[in-house]
Amino acid sequence: MAVEARQKTEAGKEFVTGADLLIEALVEAKVEKVFGYPGGAVLPIYDAMFRHEFPFEHILCRHEQGSIHAAEGYARVTGKPGVVVATSGPGATNLITGITDAMMDSLPLVIITGQVAQGVIGTDAFQEADVLGLTTPITKYNYQIQDAKELPRVINEAFYIATTGRPGPVLIDIPKNISAELTVRNESNAIELPGYQPNVKPNALQLQKLASLLEKAERPVLLAGAGVLLSDGATYLQEFVEKYELPVVNTLLGLGSFPGEHELFLGMGGMHGTYTANMAIYEADFLINIGARFDDRLTGKVANFAPGAKVAHIDIDPAEIGKIIRTDVPIVGDAKTALQALLAMDIKKPETTEWVTRLMENKVNYPYWYNRSEKQVSPQWLIEQICEKSKGEAIVATDVGQHQMWAAQFYAFNKPHNWLTSGGLGTMGFGLPAAIGAQLGRPDDLVVAIVGDGGIQMTIQELAVIHERNLPVKVFIVNNEALGMVRQWQEEFHGERYSSSLLTQNPDFLKIAEGYGIRSVLVDKEKDVPGVLEEVFAYDGPVLVDFRIHWKEKVFPMVAPGKGINEMVGVKP
Amino acid sequence: MKRIISCTVQNRGGVLNRITGMFSKRHFNIESITVGESETEGMAKMTFVVNVEDEHKLEQLTKQLHKQIDVIKVSDITEKSVVARELALVKVTANSQLRAEIQGLIDPFRGTVVDISKETMTIQVTGKTDKIDAFILLLKPFGIKEIARTGVTALLRGQQAKPYVAEVNSLTI
């Protein structure tokens, strides 16, 4: 039915389509950006966006995976939920990787997928996929709309679920007939979620237990994860740490929750973390974990992780507490709220001078190290240069692999919410679209995508979005003509059998950039790096730089798989 | 160890899939599930019999259940005073000569004959799992043709022998 022919019911109520209700609900939820891709089953939704004159900006990425990673990047740097729209069948299945990624890294997303009309659901209709079934294990919650009148409530609930408690992706599957057909407005969008009451406020008794253990601690360590960032608690963390002079270790995703150049910062822990951070955890007698989930890349062999420590774990998700590491003080609550509560308490400062002094010595004696490359660009030095030339203030997005670890090791994140990386799922192809989402979310900040020559080829089509919107994203390819981390593991653990890991037939990235209308430059000598970086950062538009590094560069130090964090190799040159 | 977990859930589309999916994703072993309406409209009661390795796994299981948006309440009722029942339908080979003998076995188990054909009898028996196991064992020599069991469903008794233990959902941590 043409919308021009809108009618009123006898009671004077206006008829609207389900899609209209959806758009109105998104506006009500204060959505500013929607990352999407149209298709048959979402035609009524796209038509409604058009008719409503796009009350939010719609970003047409060039693949659904690009849309969802861009939404993740947007969510990570703004703290607002990322909104994604995709069509039924392949549109929805192309989102699967990104949904899983957001679930693993606790990013708030609201995903709207089209579905075939209700009358043909279950008949293997054209572009039909069981999206509800497919996404049940990888969403915080999902819905399929049965009646258009539910839409305002469901959208309201979806945003509430996605953004509260431990954030995560929520998917709403909307059959085409529901978005197309006329209905009347349902005034109530009241949330009906009796089973969902996330506990934000930590238990005072448990906080007291933490306090008394802290007072007695001789070798305390504070482990800060992404929970500190998601709760916006970084300033309170710093205050707490300085008040009690606690050494701090970050998880990969927690980088930026504590200033990277702070003297009490020991670095990242885990597989490619610093020797100092890992040994501090190994020797600690009290470990306070705030907002980290003891991922296996952090803990290494569990028996060797903080073996002599009492453990206090603050997490908004009760199921994370005690999941991997036995916990003496379980504290369910929001990291910021817990830190505020701890700051308000009267806790005697533990005597830790000797311990901290020893750790400071370790910091000096066991820094990250690398050998300068003579012929090509040293990747570690490159990251240091990027950090220096961007004053440590850039938003940095990465793919997954060696360049990701070098970025985590050598870029000092002094501010929160500037670090975008796929930690839990380890998704190649994440970096470029995530950088796009970040730039759209924070248009005035410098955004750098540090990607590998392997990863960028998984989502390289999103260069089109950068060009189309003239987003000043700087795309730095750390090009070793290999799937570097795979190659490194093959060298270390598989007898140098480089099975399918060498990319000797890479395309000409400069020409690809040129094809997308983006300036590009190749850098294969170290002496050119500082000048090019200065030029690139001074330029108010997108640039792609192809940095050539040696294919045998490796990430060190390392906790080998199955080993404990006290058994790092490659600690010294 | 075997545990009985009782769960009240919001009866929304896909809830059973979400919960059994969580069990399979996290490698929890379910022995039986029963699902049915509860005393409150829109709420369903699920009863799981699960086999877990240790207390740690059990804690994870209840926490993961409780984390589900649709789950209102989770109780591990294994240690509590409960009424737990299962129903079984057993079809045995029984010609006219054997019927009287089988009837004699049914009575102590308070079973009922719910169907008779020329060659078979179908008996319904209700009770705790071990009683039903024993009953089936007893009928085996006659030749069991088919069995259908519902799995355990359970309710707390009105009066608990011990003081009421805290529910899993009212986490004090």
Beta-sheet strand percentage of chain B? 35-45%
Strand order of the largest sheet of chain A: 3-2-4-5-7-6
> What is the CATH class of the largest domain in chain A?
Alpha Beta
Give the name of the CATH superfamily of the largest domain in chain A.
Thiamin diphosphate (ThDP)-binding fold, Pyr/PP domains
CATH topology of the largest domain in chain B: Alpha-Beta Plaits
* End-to-end distance of chain B: 25 Å
| Total DSSP E strands of chain B | 9
Radius of gyration of chain A: 25 Å
Sheet having the most strands of chain A:
6 strands, parallel
Overall outline of chain B: elongated
Pathway (chain B): Amino-acid biosynthesis; L-valine biosynthesis; L-valine from pyruvate: step 1/4; Amino-acid biosynthesis; L-isoleucine biosynthesis; L-isoleucine from 2-oxobutanoate: step 1/4
Domain ACT (chain B): 4-79
GO molecular function, one term (chain B): acetolactate synthase regulator activity
Pfam families (chain B): ACT_AHAS_ss (PF22629), ALS_ss_C (PF10369)
What does this structure look like?
The complex is a heterodimer of chains A (573) and B (173). Chain A is an alpha/beta fold and 573 residues long. Chain A has three domains: 3-184, Rossmann fold (3-Layer(aba) Sandwich); 204-365, TPP-binding domain (Rossmann fold, 3-Layer(aba) Sandwich), CATH 3.40.50.1220; 379-548, Rossmann fold (3-Layer(aba) Sandwich). Chain A has 22 helices and 20 strands. In chain A, the strands form four sheets. Chain A has a six-stranded parallel beta sheet, with helices on both faces. In chain A, strands 11-10-9-12-13-14 form a six-stranded parallel beta sheet, sandwiched between helices. In chain A, strands 16-15-17-18-20-19 form a six-stranded parallel beta sheet, with helices on both faces. In chain A, strand 17, helix 19 and strand 18 form a beta-alpha-beta unit. In chain A, helix 1 (18-28) runs parallel beside helix 7 (151-163) and helix 3 (64-78) runs parallel beside helix 5 (96-104). Chain A is globular. Chain B is an alpha+beta fold and 173 residues long. Chain B has two domains: 2-76, Alpha-Beta Plaits (2-Layer Sandwich); 82-154, 2-Layer Sandwich (Alpha-Beta Plaits). Chain B contains four helices and nine strands; from the N terminus they run E-H-E-E-H-E-E-H-E-E-H-E-E. Chain B has helices at 15-25, 55-67, 96-106, 129-139; strands at 2-10, 29-37, 43-51, 71-76, 82-93, 112-116, 120-127, 144-149, 153-156. In chain B, the strands form two sheets. In chain B, strands 5, 6, 7, 8 and 9 form a five-stranded antiparallel beta sheet that branches. Chain B is elongated. The A-B interface holds A 132-133, 136-137, 140-144, 146, 161, 193-196, 199, 203, 205-206, 317-319, 321-323, 330-332 and B 9-10, 13-14, 17-18, 21-22, 25, 56, 59-60, 63-64, 66-72, 171-173. Chain B: Residues 4-79 form the ACT domain. Chain B: One of its GO terms (biological process) is isoleucine biosynthetic process. Chain B: Belongs to the acetolactate synthase small subunit family.
